[in-house]
Amino acid sequence: MAIQRKAIALLSGGLDSLLAVRVIQEQGILVEGVNFFTGFCVEGHTHAIRKKDQEKQKRNNALWAAEQLGIKLHIEDISEEYKDIVLNPQHGYGANLNPCLDCKIFMVGKANAMLNKARQMAEEKGFDFIITGEVIGQRPKSQRKDTMPLIARESGADDRLVRPLCAKLLPPTLPEREGWLDREKLYGFNGRNRKPQMALAKQFGFVDWAQPAGGCCFLTDENYSRKLADLWQSQGRKDYELDDIMLLKVGRHIRPAPHYKLIVSREEGENHFLSGYKKQFNSVNFVSHGGPLTLVDGAPTEDDMLLAARIAARFSKGRDAETVKVELLGKNGVGRIVDVVPMPTDDIPQAWYI
Amino acid sequence: MSEQQTLDTRGLLCPMPVIKTQNAIRKLAVGDILTVLATDPGVLHDIPAWCRINGHKVLDHSQEGRDIRIRIEVCED
Q1: Residue B20: helix, strand or coil by DSSP?
Q2: Of B7, B12, B14, B37, which one is the catalytic site residue?
Q3: Lower Cβ count inside 10 Å, N or C end of chain B?
Q4: Per-residue pLDDT tens for B19-30?
């Protein structure tokens, strides 16, 4: 009896990885998925935070895709190890602070570690090869003809890395040479045209899939990358904690001076989320009028806190009042009540908005 | 005898509660019961989905204010 071959798939939940898995399943291979949490993942967090999004159906796209495919899914927290990829990408950044090529090498390398049974999970499950939904020419930084062999080589996966959607444009991999996979039943997709994927999705009966704009990573987002660059600049070094990168996803960020910035909540859900950080940051809390909870990050002086309160008051219900009463609360829990004059909108320089 | 364990993920946002649930279940035996406490409403969707695809059973769930509680029976992997 033939050996049941097994593959581990990088599963983002997007269309390409969904199709790549199904193409391989069609050849009788048992597939399991792995999804990596980097801390920069778009889905989940922002929807969970913002109240206006709480009515939307929340789903983890990778879990949803795994269920559609009938495969097991392992979700791994790599946020700590991933720092090195973001801070020191060997192959540089893309258009923003997205280290896409290093990221792909890292993730395939992690899957390869599973395959090699070098890690905890792989001790009990042996995999024969790795699959990804990569398509040549799809992404300018990481999915090019010349990066495909580079990813295979630097991840350590070598010819056990199969890209079912563009395999025909690449040299035969080990599973093809060994006859575990029929190369003729793999595909030769190329470029940014999504029509071949749409047609294949239709053929497989998939009618719904995740379509994240700019991928599923905040680092591809220009606004987010600007805030991250600002964080590094203000710290005087490239580094971050998980809380830092979570907070960059929330609120308006306003920096009146290099040594402090405001994080101004935009709505109730953000208010609730930011309130969990009041013991780690100084904050502005509204007393006389409804207003946004505002965290003040950095080392503000007393005068800076008064200015922060005036700026925050501009976003409060008392923006047109003569004065607004607020509590300036230190992260040590000590507060004082003050009256401040809301700053007129035009007096807040655009350059302060990060 | 089966074990009963509680996992507190309150304050964490998805997918962390799912990852912590997965990692806790890896250390439990078939028949053990894991009670997950959470505040992110996303768990009401994600944890049952994770259980379905990995073959574990959600016994019940309840919600009181922001606090969510999900009981899972560890089944044969």
Answers
A1: helix
A2: B14
A3: N
A4: 999 999 999 999
d(CA A348, CA A325): 20
Asked whether residue A225 is assigned to any structural domain, the reply reads no
Closest CA to A131 of A3, A2, A15, A22: A22
Cα–Cα dist A275/A110, whole Å = 36
CA distance A320 to chain B (A): 34
Task: Extract the tokens encoding A229.
Answer: 């660059």
**pTM, whole model, 2 decimals?**
0.87
ipTM of this predicted structure: 0.90
Rounded CA-CA distance A257/A195 in Å is: 49
Composition of chain B by helix, strand, coil, percent to 5: 30, 35, 35
A78–B contact, CB cutoff 8 A:
no
Whether residues A39 and A172 fall in one domain: yes
B75 carries an active-site annotation: no
Taking each helix axis from N to C terminus, what angle separates A61-69 and B43-54, rounded to the nearest 10 degrees? 30
Residue A327 CA, distance from chain mean position: 35
For residue A324, the enclosing domain spans 250-352
pLDDT of residue A122: 44
User: pLDDT digit string (tens) for A132-172?
Assistant: 999 998 877 778 888 999 999 999 999 999 999 999 999 99
Number of structural domains in chain B: 1
Instruction: Give the domain CATH number at B59.
Output: 3.30.110.40
CATH code: domain of residue A42: 3.40.50.620
Domain that holds residue B38: 4-73
